[in-house]
Amino acid sequence: MMSKIQSIRGMKDVLPDETPIWQWLESKVRNITYRYGYQEMRLPILEPVALFERAVGESTDIVAKEMYNFHDKSGEHITLRPEGTSGCVRAVIENNMCYNKTQRLWYQGPMFRYERPQKGRLRQFTQFGVETFGMSGADIDAELIFMVRDIFRSLGVDQYVRLEINSLGTLPERLEHRQQLVSYFNQHKALLDEDSLRRLETNPLRILDSKNPQMQEMIEVAPRLLNFLGEDSRQHFDELCQLLDAAEIPYIVNPRLVRGLDYYTRTVFEWITDELGSQGTVCGGGRYDGLAELFGSKSLPASGFAIGIERLLLLIQAVGGDKHISNYPDIVVTYENDKQNVEALMLANQLRSKLSHLKILSDCSGNKIKRQHANALKSGCRYIITLNANQKIGLWDLEKNTNALSPLEDIIAYFAH
Ligand code: ATP
Ligand code: MG
Description:
It contains 14 helices and 16 strands. It is of the alpha+beta class.
């Protein structure tokens, strides 16, 4: 026997049971992007490897370990995008979209990272991302946070997430802090685990992110980047805090919040939930003023965030926020006599043309009437319409448990209210 072919590890099918909640979430998110005046971008899934090496940074986990790279037939070094910001910045520069104007953009789509699959961690996952360009103030950072808050609110999960913010300062501020940090960690080298020893050479800031319980006490008193901020960065951060206060958005300043990507400057934030175990970050974002310059463009202030849609769905499910979403047909049309299948199909058509607000399924199974009814009941529909052998139409209201024969006009009138 031939062996079965299965999906690739960490890549999930979204089955019809689940698509209604996806569609519901997507429509809420779209509505909010619309109301905030953001425009959609549709970006390629394949990008040059060099894009991420330069933007995300070669020492980050994403570039060092997690990318799906390959050479195409002409030898070009290509990758399945691991995140959306780099491609969006590339596109904005390539299409000269920021010449004398600001941009507010969003996208949604699959991202790919070769990580160990587990709950809330996939190799193909979906991000909803927002990027803004040409605005350097704390006000746009705050607007992004308002937007995420509105998204969580509209999905009924706002009370299950908390906002953490920090400032990573500018590159020179970070370098000064980095020196102090490296010398501090060197003094406590004996306490560092293997991962952190590696990071000490490549990306010491990320050691602050370590979850290793044995290192927590030492990390807690490590030099804090917030203390190295210059006047402008400090003011930017204070302004953001004031705006969040004014909008009554609760937040926690977490000096250890560093994020996994190299391109951030000043504001960084995460929305975290305790409902999903260690994969608790549902949204990450921040400012990345230096990124466009890395692509050879002139300086372009920028700020954005990305929500992991699968994690957000897990959260919605964990708190029962998906209860109201139904996948049921309103009406199933069945027929008594084997030869009436075409007439039943036409009947369903007539009903659909008159009752555009209802979901109407036609039983095309070829089953006997008993089985058709059993399947209709299983579908969870509210009404079963049956074309009987005498060409009369029966309407069975399953909720009221009434069953009557009626002319078509009466049936249409019954639903038309
Ligand atoms: P984590 O710390 O969980 O690995 P990250 O810092 O790598 O997250 P980002 O690169 O900031 O994540 O991506 C933004 C969001 O995308 C995350 O907050 C998360 O919700 C989601 N995400 C990231 N990686 C995965 C993955 N492998 N599977 C599912 N969702 C993911
Ligand atoms: Mg990660």
